[in-house]
């Protein structure tokens, strides 16, 4: 792998990786790696005359080429879906011939086939026949010697390609045969009986003839493969390219890497970035920016506060991007392309080269100054450190001015106040400080752009255990100007912490307000819908009543006419009509009374914990606090104050689960939109557990039973924390890992009570 400086090349690597991920997900059985071996070195045999592959080497070659052919067939079938992967493949016409030649002589166990040639087949048959004769003959002799007590406690064995009998050493003169071997203790001799000598000699001749025939077959097969050396070599290089893509995807999965946004400009905009070397320690994500306007970033702050880690993380991730690798950062992270990268970090002293820490530091700065130009990214940890602070600050400032004039980009860490002041006054240079918790005297490892950070030297002295007297004396020796600057930075840090706290509170309140607004709009929409439904029903009812009235009038007139206004009949018909009219008057009144039935006022003793029902929307909740004329009620996930006239006591339902599922605002809608799958990949442990807590509570409230959390494999930290949390929930019936084909231990399946 090489550092790339062309956006299109990096983009190609990214696209190939994405296509490989899709291919491996959709066609896992076509992956060519299982059983494949690296044949690049072994192919040199094809370039040496009279050299040949062994059976094992031919079997490995055949198996690898078979795997590649299967893989390339799938690629060819879906070439339009994976054009970049298909471009890495080769034409496989010659490879088919390679496998055909090898399969003709080697079986699926890596051994030469008995019928590899006519001569090899005859020799194999003869050997098997004579071996059988020899074994039968030796078995008879072995039985005789064993009955006589001459043999050791062992069975027949083979020495020097001859079947021999284990005989006790003290009986070697009692048997007629040739000693072929002796045991390690010397107590057992391996004797070839005289009777089997002739057959064993013939057997040895056949073995030698078969070895010569085997070598002839292997040499002939190897000769037939020589014209296809380039094709096999190209297939191997294609497999190597695919294997690199597979290794990338495996690594990206282990560090939860994402594809960043690429740009041609030499800029960096890291969002929620994590150093992959710190992944298992649950580090604080880093946000860092280098723009065309602000090419220099000066990071300051306390010792062990994360300055060097921020510098190393930025450089490492940028270096990974320019090698075509995804990085553990948010997908909206933007990375440009730099022509070169140089970093001075750590102790460069060398006894052999005669360099001290400071002289090595100066040598690196000199090299950086010489190489600085637009498109070059430079990094310096503790610039100007290692010498008298009176000169270290000016050295750092002058060097930085030179680098800035040459158009380079840089990330620099420092403790020098003069460098922080220079950064605050110079266009194109941005200060950044590492946050610090003054209350607990511990670093927060979070970078705050736009302001310098204090070194908090005096606070660290206090934390270490130095007395106040010593600290005051040190503060006095530091000078009035240094004391004022340090106090100003600390005060700025405190104000920043307060501001962050207020912002977090406002964000929480805004979310709460947004939820209330959504509920209000939902309720308003329901009321409007209900109003329209009632108006439509009233119109239909009125039309039906009007039709019935018209029919009744027409019938009355018709009856009067038919009976020619007979007095008795007319009175009878008028009576029926009057009854109908009274009925039409009373029906609407009954409906109105049924809808607006007012309940008699009751004297109720309201107490916290009492179940109540809202008369406005029918939601069931629980009393949290009681005042003179209103109640604070928890309706689902929201707490509101309601007048006493808008609530009534709710009957306690027998089934507790049913009670939970009826509380809240719009539970039908929430059930419809609730997702029983929660994806936590890429989340920090603390944020993930908060999200799980809210999601589990809502799931239980909605009556959900079967849930699934996707947390990925990684190092298993998130999975362990998640399952420890699940043990604390009394409504969790059980949990276990998903089936392997559905995600295995990268997912947790949960069943609620």
Structure description:
The protein is an alpha/beta fold and 753 residues long. The chain folds into six domains: 143 residues, MutS, DNA mismatch repair protein, Chain A, domain 3 (Orthogonal Bundle), CATH 1.10.1420; 90 residues, MutS, DNA mismatch repair protein, Chain A, domain 3 (Orthogonal Bundle); 218 residues, 3-Layer(aba) Sandwich (Rossmann fold); 94 residues; 76 residues, SH3 type barrels (Roll), CATH 2.30.30.140; 77 residues, Ribosomal Protein S8, Chain: A, domain 1. Helix content is 50%, strand content 16%. A six-stranded mixed beta sheet has the order 10-11-12-8-13-14, sandwiched between helices. Strands 18-17-16-15-19 form a five-stranded antiparallel beta sheet. A four-stranded antiparallel beta sheet has the order 1-2-4-3. Helix 14 packs antiparallel against helix 15. The longest helix has 83 residues. It is extended and about 145 Å long.
Give keywords.
753 residues, alpha/beta, MutS, DNA mismatch repair protein, Chain A, domain 3, Rossmann fold, six-stranded mixed β-sheet, five-stranded antiparallel β-sheet, 19 helices
Strands, helices and their partners?
Elements (H helix, E strand, L loop, with lengths): L6 H20 L28 H23 L5 H6 L4 H11 L14 H31 L8 E3 L2 E7 L8 E6 L5 E6 L3 H29 L3 H27 L5 E2 L5 E6 L12 E5 L5 E5 L6 H15 L12 E2 L4 E5 L12 H15 L4 E5 L8 H17 L3 E5 L3 H9 L3 E9 L4 E8 L7 H8 L3 H10 L2 H83 L4 H29 L15 E4 L5 E7 L3 E6 L2 E6 L3 E3 L6 H7 L4 H7 L3 E3 L5 H17 L4 E5 L6 H11 L4 E6 L9 E6 L1
Parallel strand pairs: 5-9, 8-12, 8-13, 10-11, 11-12, 20-21
Antiparallel strand pairs: 1-2, 2-4, 3-4, 6-7, 6-9, 13-14, 15-16, 15-19, 16-17, 17-18, 21-23, 22-23
């Amino acid at each position: 792998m090489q550092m790339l400086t062309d956006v299109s090349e990096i983009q190609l690597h990214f696209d190939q990786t994405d296509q490989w991920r899709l291919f491996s997900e959709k066609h896992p059985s076509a992956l060519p790696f299982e059983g494949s071996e690296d044949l690049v070195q072994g192919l040199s045999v094809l370039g040496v005359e009279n050299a040949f592959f062994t059976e094992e080497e031919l079997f490995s070659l055949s198996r690898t080429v078979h795997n590649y052919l299967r893989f390339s067939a799938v690629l060819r079938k879906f070439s339009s879906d994976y054009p970049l992967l298909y471009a890495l493949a080769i034409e496989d016409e010659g490879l088919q011939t390679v496998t055909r030649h090898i399969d003709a002589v080697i079986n699926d166990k890596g051994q030469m086939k008995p019928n590899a040639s006519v001569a090899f087949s005859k020799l194999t048959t003869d050997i098997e026949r004579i071996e059988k004769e020899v074994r039968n003959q030796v078995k008879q002799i072995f039985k005789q010697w064993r009955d006589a007590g001459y043999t050791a406690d062992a069975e027949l064995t083979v020495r020097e390609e001859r079947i021999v009998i284990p005989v006790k050493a003290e009986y070697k003169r009692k048997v007629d045969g040739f000693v072929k071997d002796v045991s390690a203790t010397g107590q057992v001799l391996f004797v070839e009986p005289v009777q089997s000598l002739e057959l064993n000699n013939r057997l040895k001749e056949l073995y030698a003839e078969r070895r010569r025939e085997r070598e002839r077959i292997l040499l002939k097969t190897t000769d037939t493969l020589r014209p296809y050396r380039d094709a096999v070599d190209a297939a191997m290089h294609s497999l190597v390219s695919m294997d690199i893509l597979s290794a990338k995807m495996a690594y990206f999965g282990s560090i939860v890497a994402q594809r960043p946004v690429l740009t041609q400009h030499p800029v960096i905009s890291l969002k929620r970035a994590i150093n992959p070397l710190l992944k298992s320690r649950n580090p604080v994500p880093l946000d860092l920016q280098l723009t065309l306007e602000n090419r220099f970033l000066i990071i300051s702050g306390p010792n062990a506060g994360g300055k060097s880690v921020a510098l190393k993380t930025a450089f490492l991730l940028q270096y990974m991007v320019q090698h075509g690798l995804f990085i553990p950062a948010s997908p909206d992270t933007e990375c440009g392309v730099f022509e070169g990268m140089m970093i001075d970090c750590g102790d460069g002293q060398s006894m052999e080269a005669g360099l001290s820490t400071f002289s090595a530091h100066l040598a690196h700065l000199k090299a950086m100054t010489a190489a600085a130009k637009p498109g070059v990214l430079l990094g310096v940890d503790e610039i100007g450190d290692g010498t008298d602070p009176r000169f270290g600050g000016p050295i750092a400032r002058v060097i930085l001015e030179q680098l800035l004039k040459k158009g380079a980009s840089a990330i620099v860490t420092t403790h020098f106040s003069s460098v922080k002041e220079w950064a605050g006054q110079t266009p194109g240079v941005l200060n950044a400080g590492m946050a610090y918790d003054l209350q607990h005297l511990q670093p927060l490892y979070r970078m705050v752009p736009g302001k310098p950070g204090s070194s908090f030297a005096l606070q660290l002295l206090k934390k270490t255990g130095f007395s106040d007297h010593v600290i005051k004396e040190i503060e006095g020796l530091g000078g009035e100007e240094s004391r004022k600057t340090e106090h100003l930075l600390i005060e700025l840090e405190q104000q920043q912490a307060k501001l962050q706290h207020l912002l977090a509170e406002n964000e929480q309140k805004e979310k709460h307000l947004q939820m209330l607004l959504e509920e209000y709009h939902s309720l308003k929409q329901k009321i409007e819908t209900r109003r329209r439904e009632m108006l439509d029903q009233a119109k239909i009812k009125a039309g039906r009543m009007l039709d019935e009235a018209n029919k009744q009038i027409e019938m009355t007139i018709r009856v009067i006419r038919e009976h020619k206004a007979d007095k008795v009949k007319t009175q009878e018909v008028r009576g029926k009509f009057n009854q109908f009219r009274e009925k039409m008057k009373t029906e609407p009144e009954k409906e109105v009374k049924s809808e607006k039935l007012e309940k008699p006022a009751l004297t109720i003793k309201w107490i916290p914990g009492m179940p109540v029902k809202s008369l406005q929307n029918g939601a069931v909740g629980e009393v949290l606090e009681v005042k003179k004329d209103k109640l604070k009620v928890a309706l689902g996930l929201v707490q509101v104050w309601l007048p006493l006239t808008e609530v009534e006591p709710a009957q306690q339902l027998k089934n507790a689960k049913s009670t939970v599922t009826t509380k809240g605002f719009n539970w039908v809608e929430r059930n419809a939109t609730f997702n029983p799958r929660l994806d936590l990949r890429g989340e920090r442990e603390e944020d993930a557990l908060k999200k799980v807590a809210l999601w589990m509570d809502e799931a239980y409230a909605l009556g959900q039973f079967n849930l699934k959390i996707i947390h990925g494999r990684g190092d298993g930290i998130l999975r362990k924390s998640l399952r420890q949390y699940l043990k604390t929930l009394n409504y969790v019936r059980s949990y276990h890992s998903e089936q392997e084909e559905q995600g295995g231990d990268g997912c947790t399946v949960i069943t609620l009570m």
